[in-house]
UniProtKB/TrEMBL annotation:
GO term, biological process aspect, one: bioluminescence
Transmembrane segments: none
GO MF, one annotated term: oxidoreductase activity
Family named by the database record: Belongs to the Fre/LuxG FAD/NAD(P) flavoprotein oxidoreductase family.
Record's keyword terms, sorted: Luminescence, Oxidoreductase
Protein name, per record: FAD-binding FR-type domain-containing protein
Matches recorded under SUPFAM superfamilies: Ferredoxin reductase-like, C-terminal NADP-linked domain (SSF52343), Riboflavin synthase domain-like (SSF63380)
Pfam families referenced in this protein's UniProt entry, alphabetically: NAD_binding_1
């Protein structure tokens, strides 16, 4: 089974909510700090679990969120995550975090989980494909790759339903401007008034830009339908599933195993 790799055992930490930044009208980046001297062990592309009493019923829930920050050697006790408010429940999650920040009450996290972390040869070309908040993983992995190899070849494709769903665009555009081999593409699922960018399925746009993905390493973040559909559609261009990494492989594996 793909992505069966060993990682460090998950550990529990008490952290403080030190910063909540609004990225757009319904997206927030949360900064969490463990006590000074703590070193949080995780790999770029992994996720954490956050314990919150979301329903205020003394029955806290463990909620999974992708880590959006690469490990900071100068601040190894820091970790960030991005939360989109798309429902009443996710709104309550953000409210809980604002309350924890205001009261300076620590919250519990468990990290790190997930096998779809950065583990590829960064000297090879990389394809990053994200839908919606899946860009959190891509941001984290991109940060680390460019830190280690500023000349890395990265092609980033990010799709949303609406133009105002995008966030951190300045960060990605800055990377594309500063690094000659970084290409960043924003896509809407369908044409909308005022949108002059690209539209369509992610795989369609990628097919327009590439003819050979044989040696490409790919990280895909989104629904199982998007991830498997994109891989299958790009197979004719040489993209091999053995060179693809996604959390979907863990929580929603294909019905049939890939041939060795």
């Amino acid at each position: 089974m793909k992505n069966e790799v060993k990682t460090c055992p998950a550990a529990h930490y008490d952290v403080c909510v030190t910063k909540i930044e609004s990225l757009n009208k319904h997206t927030f980046e949360i900064e969490l700090l463990a006590p000074e001297g703590t070193v949080l062990h995780y790999k770029s592309g992994q996720y954490l679990k956050l314990e919150l009493d979301v329903n205020n019923d003394d029955q806290p829930l463990w909620l999974s969120y992708t880590i959006s920050s690469s490990l900071d050697a100068d601040k190894p006790n820091k970790v960030c995550l991005i939360i989109q408010v798309t429902s009443d429940f996710s709104g309550k999650v953000v409210d809980c975090l604002f309350a924890a920040k205001a009261s300076n009450q620590p919250v519990k996290i468990m990290l790190a989980m997930g096998n779809a972390y950065l583990q590829t040869n960064i000297n090879q070309p990389h394809l990053f494909v994200a839908a919606g908040s899946g860009i959190s993983k891509i941001k984290c992995i991109t940060e680390e790759i460019l830190h280690r190899n500023p000349d890395a070849s990265l092609n980033i494709y990010w799709s949303n339903r609406h133009s105002d769903d995008f966030f951190l665009l300045e960060q990605f555009h800055n990377w594309a401007s500063a690094h000659k081999n970084v290409n960043f593409h924003t896509i809407l699922e369908s044409a909308q008034s005022g949108w002059t960018g690209r539209t369509g399925f992610l795989y369609e746009v990628i097919q327009q830009d590439h003819t050979n993905l044989k040696e490409t390493q790919a990280y895909l973040c989104g629904s199982p339908k998007m991830v498997y559909g994109t891989i299958d559609q790009l197979n004719d261009l040489g993209l091999e599933e053995r060179n693809c990494y996604s959390d979907v492989f863990e929580f929603s594996p294909r019905a049939e195993k890939l041939e060795a």
